[in-house]
Fold this sequence. Notes:
four-stranded mixed sheet; binds calcium ion
Amino acid sequence: MKYRVPYLGYLKFWPVCLFLTGCGGGGNDSDTAISDSMPSPNKSPTLTLDFATSLPENQIRIGKVIVNDPDGDAVSLTLSGDDSVFLNIKQDILLFKTAPDFEDPVDTDADNVFVFDVTASDGALSVSESVEIEVFNVIERKYDEAIFENDSLE
Length: 154
Ligand SMILES: [Ca+2]
Ligand SMILES: [Ca+2]
Ligand SMILES: [Ca+2]
């Protein structure tokens, strides 16, 4: 019992000390940490096109479009340009809406080269890449039967 009285006396001042520490030192520490780790408010996303620019006809899938934002922002992909109406992006895969037919080209100037731009945006900053995809011929019975009927094929 002798020791308890002085001990309780010290406790009275504890809440005051803790309060001052929290407002002063603690607050300043967290402000410093934020400005050190985020020197710039926003950064542009990056865009990587992972596919060949020359593809056989009759296939829908073109390849992957990989986006990354250094700030972790949500990135939206858009297509623009002459032949963008023939293309689609589903999740991270670039596709033709209809499989291209070499013998019946639908691109704007009908040369089997689809020209368009891919843009990645985080809502404030964006990055674009121009793309040209050439569709090349595949020998098919339907359109190339003259070649098939020729017995020179092994
Ligand atoms: Ca960003
Ligand atoms: Ca073209
Ligand atoms: Ca063909």
